[in-house]
Amino acid sequence: MNDLIKRTHVLISVLVLASQFGLHAQAPQGVNYQAIARNPQGQELTNTALDVKYRLYSDAALTILVYEENTSVNTNAFGLFTSVIGQGTPVVGN
Question: Is 94 exposed, middle or buried (0-12, 13-18, 19+ CB in 10 A)?
C-alpha cells in the first residue's frame, strides 16, 4: 500500500510541475505532405517551381468540397517536394 501512495505522490508532483512550466498540448497547424512530382511520361520534375492545389472532400464520391488551398513549392534534384496542408492560401473553407 505504501508503494501505491508513493507512486500517487510522484504522479501528482509531476503534474503540478508540468502545469507550473506551462506544458500544454497544441493542435497541429497543418498536415505534413511530401510527394514526387512527375511529368505525364513519369519522369521526375527536378529543381522546378510548382503551384500545388490541395482539395479535401467529405464524401467518397468527391462531390462535397470542404476545403481547398493553393501553395507554391520547389522540387529538389529528385523531384521531391514537401509542404504543410493548411498553411497555403485558402480558396474554400478554413
Answer: exposed
